[in-house]
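Table 4 source record.
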Amino acid sequence: MRRVCRASLLVHLIAGSGTTRPRLGPVTATSQAPSSSDPAESAPVGSGGPLSRLPLPSMRLQKGLALANVFTQIGIMTTGVLVRVTASGLGCETWPKCNQDSFVPVPGAGPAVHQAIEFGNRLLTFVLVAVAAALILALLRAGRRKGLILLSLTMPVGILAQAVIGGITVLAGLIWWTVALHLLPSMVLAWLAAVLFVRVGERDDASPRQVVPTPLRWLTILSTVLLAGVLATGTMVTGAGPHAGDARIGAADRLQLPIQWLVHFHAELMVGYVCLLIGLVAGLIALKTSGPAIRRAWILIGMIAAQAVVGIVQYWLGVPELLVILHVTLAGAITAVTGALWAAGVIRDRADA
């Protein structure tokens, strides 16, 4: 009996020593925060490090930064095509400097307006980096899930790669295929940015659910592949067209294929893309699946119809500069919405704003 009492006393002393009992008071840097339905309220990553000095970002702020990331990725496409249609591609004649002696435009080194447009486009890269960095810091400070952090890291990596490709394009003298390669990574970044925006708004503690049946998911993949073909042939049309990016580039340096043939091939791929989207919408409605997926697919169809009108009009009007800018901007927006459509296939519960 005494042995039992002694054992009970020993257990009581150990349990009451505070070494194993969970803390019930306020969460500190050494205690574990309880799980929360709002990812922004979960324990921040590196709470004892430099990030602890930053304010805890709300879900609204995280979504706002993710949306700004989408718009900046599309926006730099707009300024990039502005460089091309104004023949300012070699306004800064080298890279990373603007000219041989300076990182900034120098009076007399070239037409002032061309230098300003090209240099301004280069400066926007820093805006993209700043937005991406702010988003990553916000997600880290909020303690978001690992997969989301990894997805956000594709933004600065892609922006850096895109800057290097742009520099090679300038150093190569705006060869048509380098110009094409300069645009396509921006489309990939716009697609990823849209997926990231959707994922940021989801709860970290919710399990992913496939709401679009697998056959329709494959149809979404096929439509994305076809969109890639549309974008690639679009850059080829540009390579054979009149807007080379600099007035000193002659016809001999352009893509030597009939532009009429390229335009028709580009348009036929677009028709195929629309047909796949219509089939996708019909399948989603018939199976009564995800509402967001249906809405995004309808938005895509409407945007593509507008894009088709712009493309036809610009072709028959001789490719005017303003319509070219609008056409490329719409292409970036369509790519982003395609990414959002893909993200709607597998979702988590939405987080509160």
